[in-house]
Structures are given as C-alpha cells and as structure tokens.
Amino acid sequence: MLSMIYLFCAPILIHFVASVPVKDTRYMTGYNTGYLSECPGKENPVEISEESLRKIRIKVIGAKATRRSIRKKYNYFQIKEMAKDPTMDYHRKTILFISGYFDNPDQPPSRILENSYRSLGYNVWLADVYNFVKDPYPIVTRNAPYVGLRVGEMLYNLTLQNVGFDPKKLESLGLSLGGQIISFMAKSFKALSGTKLSKLTALDPTGACFRRLGPEGRLDQSDADYVEVVNTNMDGLGMATPVGHVNFYVNGGEYQLSDAYWMPCELMCSHIRAYTLWYSALSNPNGFVAMKCDSVQQARDKDCYDRQPLVTNLLGLNVDKTKHGIFYLATYHNYPYYMGEKGLKREFEPISNVLKEINKEDVLVV
What we know:
Blueprint: H1 2-19, H2 26-29, H3 50-53, E1 57-61, E2 72-75, H4 79-83, E3 94-98, H5 108-119, E4 123-128, H6 137-159, E5 170-175, H7 177-193, E6 197-203, E7 224-231, E8 246-250, H8 267-283, E9 289-293, H9 296-300, E10 312-314, E11 325-329, H10 350-358
Helix pairs in contact: 5-8, 6-7
C-alpha cells in the first residue's frame, strides 16, 4: 500500500521541487532561527538582594574631569553622592554605556569609548553590572531585565536630586547584552517618571534568549524617544527583527568581512564589529552613509541600490532622526571601514567586488 502511495505521489513531489527556482533555496533549507532562540526558564522571576544591589554601580567621568580626577563608582544606594560628583557638568550631554557578557567598565571597550566621548565634550557614565553578567549565558539573560530595571531606578532617583540632571540630555549606548539591558532601564525609567529617555543605541543587541520575545521582553522602539540599532551578526549572536526607529544592516547584517578578507569573520568577529564601527563613526561622523531598503530581506541580499527614491542616513552621532526604517550600510573590510558615498553605488559593493577581483581571470591556469 505504501509503495503504491509513493509511486503516485513521487512524480508530483519531483515536479514541485523542480519547479522551485534554484536561486532561492529557502524553500529547501528553511530559515535561520539564530543562536539560542529559546531559553526555557528565562522569564522566571529574579530577586536581587540588598547586598547584590550594592554591586550595581555607575562609574562617573564628568566633562570637568582631569587626569588627576578620581573616577569614582557609585552604587544603587549612593545616588545623592553621585549627583554631586565634582566632575559632572549637567549642562553638557551625558553618555551611559553598558557593555556585554563578562565585561566591566575597567576593561578596554569601556575605556576606549570613555576617551572618545570625553573628546567630544560628554560626561561619561560606565555601568558596572559585572556581578550579573558572569554566569552561564541563559542565567545572565534572565538577570538582564532586573538589572536594567534597577539602573532605571537609579536614573529616576537622580532626577529627584535637583542638580540639573536632564534625561533628555542622556544618551544610552549598549553593546550586545548591554543593548538589551538599556531597554529595560528605559522601560523602568518611563514607568517611574512618565517620561521617555532621549536616545538608545544598541550595537548588535544580543538575540540569544530574546529574539522570539515581544516588545515588553526585549529592545523596542517604544522604549525611548529615539532607538537606533546596528546589526552585524543578526542570525548568530544578534537579532534580525528591526526593533528600532532606524535599523542599520551592515553589509547585509549577517556576517562581516574579515580584516584579512579571505578569512572568515564568524560569530564573535561579526558581532563585535558593531563596536568598532561605532568607535570609527565617532571620529568620522559623516563617513558611514547608508541607503534605505524596503525589507530586511532586501538588506540581506544587498539589493537596495535601485530603490527609488534614494533615501540615505548616517551611522553615528549625525544620524537623521526623522528618517526611520531599514538601512543597508556597506563598509570596507578594514579600519576605519567607512566608504562615504561610494557605499551607495553597486559598482563599489564590497563583498562581490572583492570576490570578482580575486577571480578576475577569464581562464585560470594552474
């Protein structure tokens, strides 16, 4: 009986498979779900003890700081002292940076950004949540919402100190896991104050244990007045969903070119590229020119060049906040990465052109 069903169905199945365009293999191979798309138990509650609350700290390097100034860290219970930090200049903008897994503000990623933003006249706050990001990753992602909630409470309590802290002058930057923590920080602040924070920037925000959750459980454009996302490894350690007001998909957003372009730039290499691009953009604010796309798939396929009308935006502090949507950003394979307006022309598209150059011989003699 089974053999008869097979003989009857096989020609139909073969005809169907043969009719699917060879170019589009998604019918055959499916879609990438990403690394750790589901983490059972993640949404169970977390209680943070008073002792652990003392380990949620913000390191302050105000715009008035000198080389001799003490870079002091203030914990959850020291907001009155933090408000009066002698290096702070509340007339200036402030950047709050929260880094990623197993990281702390004394390590190079935070110190490098500290110097970059200080040179631009910002007050710099570096969140220290190391005690909550050093466990196995599923536990860390379970901690993240509660840590963000507490940092949001710290910010709200700071507004009550009458020292001139203006949340609309605060910009928040999160790398990887930090890109999700700043979301919960902003949600918490909004719930307490009734006011949204000004701006969140998420550098390839982690998708592991977050990508299948709704807006209440991960980064979302409703969290702040303006949310921008830089996607460099969306199917691996990042997330593909366009959750910001503006969403940059760098070289398609899946994987990045290695500095040595014939070598693979895999998960961590591509994931961290969002950080080095942002660092470069701080010094080259008009260098990273992106073009608007109609869909994430179009950005993946690097197929936005012929879209009309041409709408562009800039990665970095000069981003046009009135231009929302999905943007494809082409970059070179080595620092400082930016292509300027060349990145808007198909003839300079970096990946295919590199491959064409390698295989430019009509006949290869070996």
